[in-house]
Sequence to fold (450 residues):
Amino acid sequence: MSENIENSKKMVERELQFYSKSSRVSYYDIVLDRGEGALLYDVDGNEYIDLLASASATNTGHCHPKVVKAIQEQADMLVHYTPAYIWHTPEVELAEKLAKLAPGDSPKKVAFGNSGSDANDAVIKFARAYTGRPYIISFIGSYHGSTYGSMSLSAISLGMRRKMGPLLPGIYHVPYPNIYQEGIYEMSEEEQVEHFFKPIEEMFKYYVPVKETAAFVLEPIAGDLGIVPAPKLFWKKLHEFCQEHGILFAIDEVNQGLGRTGKMWSIDHYDIEPDIMVVGKSIASGMPLSAIIAKAEIMDSLSAPAHLFTTAGNPICCAASLATLEVIEEEHLAERSEKLGKNARERFEAMKEKYNFIGFIHGAGLNMGVTIIDPETKQKDQMSALKIVTRAFQKGVCVITIAESVIRFQPPLVITEEQLDKALNVLDECMQELLDGKLSDDLISGERGW
Ligand SMILES: Cc1ncc(COP(=O)(O)O)c(C=O)c1O
Fold:
């Protein structure tokens, strides 16, 4: 239980005077002190089981000894030199490793960045350069980052649009094939695909010339939409359409990559070789590193200084990334995600039997979304979802909501079975408290959540 958070409170109050409100979605007013595996500790000594993994950025867990050792050793050798001018060993090794690790057999090349956002900017640059076409299509409900380019690809919140426009021109959005909606879920897969392909056909018929379209940018499994896997047939059809029309198929693995979904890459669930992919977050266990990895001929379409950053490909970040990739492989974290995810799914399904406010449960592996609804209207119920996660937090489980009322379940992949069980018991208890009318509106103070 996190009843005493006095030290945190003081520090939060101090920081709020100096920190921009643009840069934090408020959930819980605690200050972290340290982390270990799937456990977090705040400055008052409270312990939390982490079901958020720093927004899927610490798949290897907090302070994995191997990653920490790599960081320490590299810090002793060379803290920084920019690959924009001169090579260094970890960058050379990592570029090769990522190029070989990307899905498909075509030769790939890599460029480093500092964040998932700038990697998505790179997609726009390379797709336009390679195809000589201006238009990019992405999906409603997607989050691709917070730079102007990646924000223009995103379409998830007016908070990312208001007062900042105009955004990058030439980017259009179509509905994400989110089958987890009443009336659509019940359709056959073919009908679902037809349903979601219609707006695309209309777009190309009425307002976007297909021959001037450079790329589709997509998450195979949409993270911020609520961890929503798209139907297999849909990506297959879209990929075929792209190939037929010379449009690049570009995927964002920033949130869903690196073993999160039960496979190394989320696109591995779809047997498609993307033309371009971007990685970030867990690629270096949360150290600031991202990469665009694309077919060599696409990456050869631009020359310096089209896409370079002084601190991109920093030696310590690259060393952390090499160690991270080894941990994912050696500890079979993708397989672990799949296995533990099956147990978690059973637990959520059992909760759904008990609680009529649980709607769809989506995703697989240690990567799921549990939608909380109003049982009568069947509409999303943000307040109830916030109450459940806030109460869970009070009981020592760090979990948040996304997509209005979806409980975001993305623990570090190293979480122990015991920790997982304990965290799921807490969620179950909190849902029971909600059902019993024990969670009042006062639980949620001020502006909270997405
Ligand atoms: C799918 C996806 N792409 C890109 C980003 C942006 O990454 P970053 O915050 O590192 O810029 C995020 C971050 O949440 C993401 O979830």
About this structure: The CA atoms of residues 118 and 234 lie 27 Å apart. The first strand starts at residue 32 and ends at 36. The two ends are 24 Å apart (CA to CA). Residues 55, 115-117, 120, 143-146, 219, 223-224, 252, 254-255, 280-281 surround pyridoxal-5'-phosphate (CB under 6 Å).
